[in-house]
Structures are given as structure tokens and as C-alpha cells.
Amino acid sequence: MRRTIIAGNWKMNLNKAGVDTLVSGILNGLGALKSPPVIMVFPSTIHLSEVASAFKGKNVEVGCQNIYPSKLAAFTGETSIDQLKDLGIENVLLGHSERRQFLGETDEFLNQKVHHALSEKMKPMLCVGETLEEREANKTFDVVKRQVREGLKGVSKEDAKSITIAYEPVWAIGTGKVATPEQAEEVHAFIRKELAEVFSPELSEEISILYGGSVKPDNVKSLLEKPNIDGGLVGGASQKPDSFLGLLV
């Protein structure tokens, strides 16, 4: 059975005071939730230790926004899984569109990260999605197919059980625009079909596919009602306690 996941990507936002306020607000609101989905948060690396400690034993999974595909080594400014293990962190976000677009991360490099994370018993969340130009050129499915297949190339069926996919149309990130539930569902169904071909139809039904792109409390329900949308990877709305908690009911 697929997990319903609401994951908050805090990006390079929030100072210590902001993190403390957000964490405190989430903790205070958890008790009022009757049957919440799986809750994940991805803070900035500098805040991982305190956030992981605050949420320990609180049914909130903490993940890192990025890793370098290497054991401890001389890669200045990067984060190793060895370091994350010290904090009890198992989740890692890979291939976010901002890293693809602004930092030049390729499908091949992301595939290296996926394999390294899996080899270290981590749980990768692989992000895929098209730009506005690609959508307007009717290349959405070509782009998503390439990113899914190249990002997961060589992954075994057993390891695939540890993977989550996040579909995030780049044109709907931080813009206030959002794909309609029907648009999002169309791409999610396509991704699940690709997963069925890469792995198996049975396994594709076990992999959660999240939608990312201006998810808010007022649209999350209509998105989650679609059969192939299993949650959300949320940016701005995850960075304030009230709006993040509003996604969990």
C-alpha cells in the first residue's frame, strides 16, 4: 500500500529563530491531528541537527536537501551520507528543479546520487518535471520520461521500494501557479506507467508519487483525491506552522 506523504522543503530559507518558531508550531499542532499522513521536512543542512533532535520520536521524518555521491572525502561545501547517519537521517531529496536549473545537475549525476544513497540504505526522493517552455512545446512527457528513466537507470526492483518520486512542474514552483488536479494526475499516471515498464506493474503501485508546485491548504485536498497523487512536496506553505499543519488534515 502506498504511503501518503506531505513533505516540506524549507530550501535555503529561515534563520535559527524562524526554524525554532516553525518546529515549535508543528510540534504544538501534531496532537490535534487525528490521522495525519507521513510527515517529512527537509531543512537547510545547517539546521539538520537541531531539527532532527526536535522531531526525534515525534512521527516527523527529517531529510537532507542534497548529498554528494561519495563517502567522507575532500569535497568542500558538500554533505556526506556518513554525516547524515550520525543524525539518524534516512531521507534525501535529489534532483530538485532548482538544482537542475541553477546548479547544472544532470540526469547522469543524479543517477549517481540515487545509487549512492541506495547503497548506503538511504531513501531518495527523486524530483522530475518540465519547464514552462517545455510544456508549451508539448515536451512534458518526453522530459519526464527521460528524467525518470535516466535517474533510475540500473536501480534494482528491491531498491526501488525505497524510492519516492516527486513531480514538480517548474512553471508552478514559487510562482503561485498550480497545475490543475487533472493536469497533475495526467503526468502522475504517466510516471506510474513508466515505473511499471522500468520495474513491474506491481512495484509501480507501491511507489508514492508526490506533486510539488504551489501546493497549499486550499488545493491539497483536490490534488490528493486523484488516484495517482500520493502527497505533496511543498515549498512556501511548509515554512509557516499554520499553513503546513493545514496540509495535514
Which descriptors would you attach to this protein?
about 250 residues, about 40% helix, 8-stranded parallel beta sheet
Give a description of the structure.
The structure is a single chain. The protein is of the alpha/beta class and 249 residues long. It has twelve helices and eight strands. The protein has helices at residues 16-30, 48-55, 81-85, 97-103, 107-119, 132-136, 140-151, 157-160, 181-198, 201-204, 220-224, 241-246, and strands at residues 5-9, 38-42, 60-64, 91-94, 123-128, 164-167, 209-211, 231-234. It has an eight-stranded parallel beta sheet. The longest helix is centred in the last third of the chain and has 18 residues, at 181-198.
Briefly characterize the structure.
The chain has helices spanning 16-30, 48-55, 81-85, 97-103, 107-119, 132-136, 140-151, 157-160, 181-198, 201-204, 220-224, 241-246; strands spanning 5-9, 38-42, 60-64, 91-94, 123-128, 164-167, 209-211, 231-234. It has 249 residues and is an alpha/beta fold. The protein has a single domain, classed as Aldolase class I (TIM Barrel, Alpha-Beta Barrel), CATH 3.20.20.70.
List the SSEs and their pairings:
Elements: E1 5-9, H1 16-30, E2 38-42, H2 48-55, E3 60-64, H3 81-85, E4 91-94, H4 97-103, H5 107-119, E5 123-128, H6 132-136, H7 140-151, H8 157-160, E6 164-167, H9 181-198, H10 201-204, E7 209-211, H11 220-224, E8 231-234, H12 241-246
Parallel strand pairs: 1-2, 1-8, 2-3, 3-4, 4-5, 5-6, 6-7
